[in-house]
């Protein structure tokens, strides 16, 4: 996916900060890839470059056969809308819209029709099948979180990015979020990339990389991951 990424910032005193120092990364469908590492190690910079929100000084990022570091801004934002999904720390749900309307909104803004059957099956698999016509305030925090995941997935993105997906959650909701990300990777077959310093997220990863001073190292890889389909979501049927 990414080859030879470098991104240098200039500090106020004029010195160079190597936020990305020759980073290579491959992500696969059906796997949860976790990028761990301390604060300041370059994780957010990497996510931004992988997602086409920032450009590297050198190196390339291929998504769906296209080098996203080459196109113009319009090509890039179009690629982002069509090929990538994002799970943010805050769910950014709009209170005056139902879950269904929230999920459909990004695609509608992009002039596309939502596949209702796909929405329903994603919602069903995350235990939200009966909740699509509820408003966010009528849903638990965990349900709101899973609505945001369905919204990220409904356009069938090639890669789903999650930036510190458990950081703003309590222990139980954090564990549900991890189970959801695994479900999305193992059962729905998406490539999921999570940036996190939460040891539980790190433990759940099929491939775990660690970032340190702008350099990325593979620390663990579970070869069996992609054939290991997860059982039914543990919260299915709970409210
Ligand atoms: P992480 O997400 O792992 O905490 P970041 O990618 O945010 O790390 O930052 C990596 C390094 O780059 C840090 O030293 C940070 O201070 C520096 N950095 C990040 N963004 C900027 C910026 N816009 N200008 C200057 N330095 C930056
Ligand atoms: Mg960060």
TrEMBL record:
- Gene3D superfamilies xrefs: P-loop containing nucleotide triphosphate hydrolases
Which intervals hold domain ABC transporter? 3-238
Q: Which UniProt keyword terms apply here?
A: ATP-binding, Nucleotide-binding, Transport
Q: Which domain of life is it from?
A: Bacteria
Q: Which InterPro entries match?
A: AAA+_ATPase, ABC_transporter-like_ATP-bd, ABC_transporter-like_CS, ABC_transpr_LolD-like, MacB-like_ATP-bd, P-loop_NTPase
Spell out the SUPFAM superfamilies in the cross-references. Answer: P-loop containing nucleoside triphosphate hydrolases
Keyword set includes Iron? no
Q: Which PROSITE patterns match?
A: ABC_TRANSPORTER_1, ABC_TRANSPORTER_2
Q: Name one Pfam family in it.
A: ABC_tran
MF terms in GO? ATP binding
PANTHER family from the UniProt entry = ABC TRANSPORTER RELATED, IMPORT ATP-BINDING PROTEIN
Name of the protein this chain belongs to = ABC transporter ATP-binding protein
Species per Swiss-Prot/TrEMBL record: Nocardioides phosphati
**Taxonomic lineage from the root:** Bacteria, Bacillati, Actinomycetota, Actinomycetes, Propionibacteriales
């Amino acid at each position: 996916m990414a080859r030879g990424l470098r991104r240098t910032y200039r500090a106020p005193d004029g010195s160079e900060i190597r936020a990305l120092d020759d980073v290579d990364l491959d992500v696969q469908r059906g796997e949860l890839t976790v990028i761990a590492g301390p604060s300041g190690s370059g994780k957010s910079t990497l996510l931004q470059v992988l997602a086409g929100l920032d450009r590297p000084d050198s190196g390339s990022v291929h998504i769906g056969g296209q080098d996203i570091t080459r196109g113009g801004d319009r090509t890039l934002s179009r690629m982002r809308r069509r090929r990538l999904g994002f799970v943010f720390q805050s769910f950014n749900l709009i209170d005056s819209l139902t879950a269904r309307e929230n999920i459909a909104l990004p695609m509608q803004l992009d002039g596309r029709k939502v596949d209702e059957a796909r929405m329903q099956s994603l919602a069903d698999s995350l235990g939200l099948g009966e909740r699509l016509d509820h408003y966010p305030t009528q849903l638990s925090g965990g349900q709101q979180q899973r609505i945001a995941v369905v919204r990220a997935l409904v356009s069938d993105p090639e890669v789903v990015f999650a930036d510190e997906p458990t950081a703003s959650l309590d222990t139980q909701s954090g564990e549900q979020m991890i189970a959801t990300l695994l479900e999305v990777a193992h059962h729905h077959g998406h490539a999921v990339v999570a940036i996190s310093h939460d040891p539980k997220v790190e433990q759940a990863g099929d491939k775990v990389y660690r970032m340190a001073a702008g350099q990325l190292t593979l620390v663990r890889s579970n070869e069996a991951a992609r054939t290991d389909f997860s059982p039914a979501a543990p919260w299915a049927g709970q409210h």
